[in-house]
Amino acid sequence: MDARSDNMFFKRFIALFRKFEYLNHLDMSDNSLNILPENLFINIDHLSELSLSTNLFQSTPSEIISQNDIKVLDLRSNLLPTVDYKTRVWADLMNQKHGLYFLLDGNAFECNCDNLDFIKWIQETKVNLDSRSYKCTLVNGTVITVLDAYENMHDLFSHCRNSIWLMVSSILLGTSCILTMIVLLYNRRWNIAIFFYRIFRKIVEKKYGKKYTYDVFVSYGGDCIPWIKKYFIPKLENEWKLKICVKDRDFYGGESFYDAEAESIENSRHVIFLLTPIFKVSPGLSV
Length: 287
Hints:
The chain is α/β, with parallel strands linked by helices. The chain has helices at 7-17, 85-98, 116-124, 146-151, 153-187, 189-208, 225-239, 247-250, 257-266, 277-280; strands spanning 25-27, 49-51, 72-74, 101-103, 109-110, 128-129, 135-137, 143-145, 214-219, 244-246, 268-273.
């Protein structure tokens, strides 16, 4: 039977397999298979020997690990570059449960940085393999054995560590840059907000033809003058670059206090009231 990856064939294939509930031995070797249909073994619970040798599998069929009674698995002479982690874990569990013969000779194994865990597993697993010296191909095309790769791992794959460290360093550098940007933006959030505020303000003022002398007018009581001079004014004027109007500095003599205050408020974009005990009884509160 020359089985191909055809949908109609697989549908018939699955329908046929549903009748084999008590199947123990299954030989599907030499059929040019490259995949197994999903749920192929859904009704088969007693499969102990499975032969998939001399096919075209490039990865271990995931349907295999759904079986819990397999004692012999034959995947010789396929195109496997590795045996994936899930299949290795399943093989170790099957071996602990009832012993497992896992036949893998004649595949296209690769000995590279991505396959180091597989190379170690071949030599360290308790699963009964048909060899511990499968042929594998290095990145430069040289063919060696998996055993040679295991015994000379430090010399052959020392560059893998450099790649890992380069990746880790890149991730750390990228993370550091992002965190630095976040911290910078957070520390400068008011400056950024004011920058966009100024742009928006200019657009609005240009549209309505209104110009202001001050950004902020500050109304306050006499009990907070020291705080205003030491903290408030430097914050708004020096750091935020806002032009503010305070009565003790910007009001000139010879004009009515109320008139000066009303005019300053009129010529200010915003008004800030600093509510303190003295402010509550201040005559300027009525403005």
